[in-house]
Amino acid sequence: MLLAVVVTLNPLEPTQAPATLNRAVHAWFLDRIEGIDAALAHRLHEDEGPRPFTTSNLWGTGPARGGQVRLDPQRACWLRLTGLTEEVSAAIERALPAVGETLTLTGVPLRVAAIATEAAQDPWAGRADYTGLVQRYTLAPGAHPRDVTLRFASPTLFRSEGRDVPLPLPSLVFDGYLRKWNTFSPLALPEEAKRYATECVALGRFRLRSHLVSFEQGGKGAHVGFTGEARFRFLVGDAYWTRVMLLLAGYAFWAGSGYRTTMGLGQTQGLGIRDQGSGIRD
User: Between the CA atoms of 194, 195, 198 and 201, what dihedral angle is there, to the nearest 10 degrees?
Assistant: First the structure.
């Protein structure tokens, strides 16, 4: 029911492209879905509330200069898609381009070099299901966790009371995962998890960097977000609730963190979480 796909691409020729291709990737994704299921594409575009997919920016392009990145045929880049329901994950697999096919983002042609859908193929790819995640993180034997560290790989921010919050506050981080989980999973988690995250989870050591992200020309629609790593400490060592927090942190790999995850923000990976972490692709 959960799918993460990495599409590796090579530019056909040396060129420049906007550093923020989030909208272009989002539009390309919905266009591919529309080609196989127009009704689903319409729902994904129009539905209110949490949406059952994420997309990424174009990664691996190198540093931006003047809002542009240099693309070179000798340097692979990639984009990432995730599905949070069986319907969306199946549609993504059906809509994926074939290796050798060319796709275009803002007028830039890119040839598909590889498709990864398994963790063994790429550390940002993989498959899972909700039942399996519950068993993996909450029912496994051993001591209960005392903390969890997350890596926010793309600019991340949260919305609270109508304002942007560019900090990984535990209440906002874990409440976002909880809302998505309870929207899309057949196995609901108790709403008291939000209270535990608010009262019993503290932000520990972190290494973060701020970023300005704009989806429009001229600075319109700009947000300040952050990337980097943050450790969350469990102040009350309750075996059940700490494992629920670990479960939600593991779910972040598919769900993303915070605001506008369907536009490339909030791509997240757990560090030291089983089946995630080592071999992280920058």
Answer: -90
Q: How far apart are CA 221 and CA 280, in angstroms?
A: 30
Asked if residue 97 has pLDDT above 80, the reply is yes
**Structural domain span for residue 171:** 130-271
- 227: alpha, beta or left? (left if phi > 0; alpha if psi -120 to 50): beta
| Residue 144 covered by a domain | yes
CB 202 within 8 Å of CB 169: no
Going through 31-185 in order, the beta strands assigned E by DSSP cover 53-55, 68-71, 77-83, 102-105, 108-116, 126-128, 147-156, 158-160, 163-165
To the nearest whole percent, how much of the chain has pLDDT over 70? 95
pLDDT digits (tens, 9 = 90+) for 115-167: 999 999 999 999 999 999 999 999 878 788 999 999 999 999 999 999 999 99
Residues 161, 103 share a domain = no
- Within-domain flag for 153: yes
Quote the mean pLDDT of the chain: 93
Nearest to 29 by CA among 92, 100, 114: 92
Listed residues 60, 90, 116: the one ending a domain: 116
